[in-house]
Automatic annotation (TrEMBL):
UniProt KW Hydrolase keyword: yes
Domain of life (superkingdom): Bacteria
Protein name: dUTP diphosphatase
Single GO MF annotation: dUTP diphosphatase activity
EC number assigned by the record: 3.6.1.23
Lineage: Bacteria, Pseudomonadati, Pseudomonadota, Gammaproteobacteria, Cellvibrionales
UniProt enzyme class: hydrolase
Pfam families: dUTPase_2
InterPro entries, alphabetized: dUTPase/dCTP_pyrophosphatase
Statement: the UniProt record of this protein carries the keyword Lipid biosynthesis: no
Assigned keywords, A-Z: Hydrolase
Length: 198
């Protein structure tokens, strides 16, 4: 996932690691979006949309991974650092809102990303590592697809056959084999097959 994130960020900006982008800020903003999907407004009827909550968790992971990179970063060392941080991880048992606030609070006060607090949020939202991986790769591929089809210049078509591209992605991922060595390529080809041709 670190490798895929590096490639995606480099596609958007070749020298992305030295730009000083505030990835932690994007992560806490995604936390706020997650809370909207879960529901926090006691003054009106709300139904938690766990699928959307989990999609926001995946979006947070994109920004969290990006936040861990520094100029000249070694992907293997970053992966080891993540594994080491999680070696002593124990779930706090917090609910979704409290776990989200803890991660957002860390992002705001430390201007960095906490893998263990993110893992706590994953546990609170019921997202397994396999689900995170499958959804992360799918969203990463969709982001590449968007860039390859005009996202940056505004020519990308986001709604196809009456559905947003994210909906198509969910349908593709439902039947995709994440254990396939060409999982990412298979997802990309499926997006191409559905996208309206020029």
């Amino acid at each position: 996932m670190l490798d895929l994130q590096n490639r995606m960020n480099a596609k958007v900006h070749p020298d992305w690691m030295s730009q000083g982008f505030a990835w932690y800020r994007a992560a806490w903003i995604e936390c706020a979006e997650l809370m909207d999907h879960f529901g926090y407004k006691w003054w009106k009827k709300q139904q938690a949309d766990i699928e959307q909550v989990q999609l926001e968790v995946v979006d947070i992971w994109h920004f969290g991974l990006s936040a861990m990179f520094t100029p000249g970063a070694d992907i293997e060392k970053l992966a080891d650092a993540i594994v080491n941080e999680l070696a002593s991880y124990q779930a706090s048992g917090k609910g979704v809102l409290a776990a989200t606030e803890a991660l957002a609070g860390h992002c705001l006060t430390e201007k960095s990303f906490s893998v263990s607090l993110f893992w706590d949020l994953m546990a609170a939202s019921g997202l397994s590592f396999d689900q995170l991986y499958k959804q992360y790769v799918g969203k990463n591929v969709l982001n590449f697809f968007r860039q390859d089809h005009g996202y940056k210049d505004g020519s990308y078509i986001k709604i196809w056959q009456g559905s947003e591209d994210n909906v198509h992605l969910v349908e593709i991922l439902a039947s995709a084999d994440m254990r396939s060595p060409q999982f990412a390529d298979d997802v990309y080809k499926s997006l191409v097959a559905r996208y309206p041709s020029a």
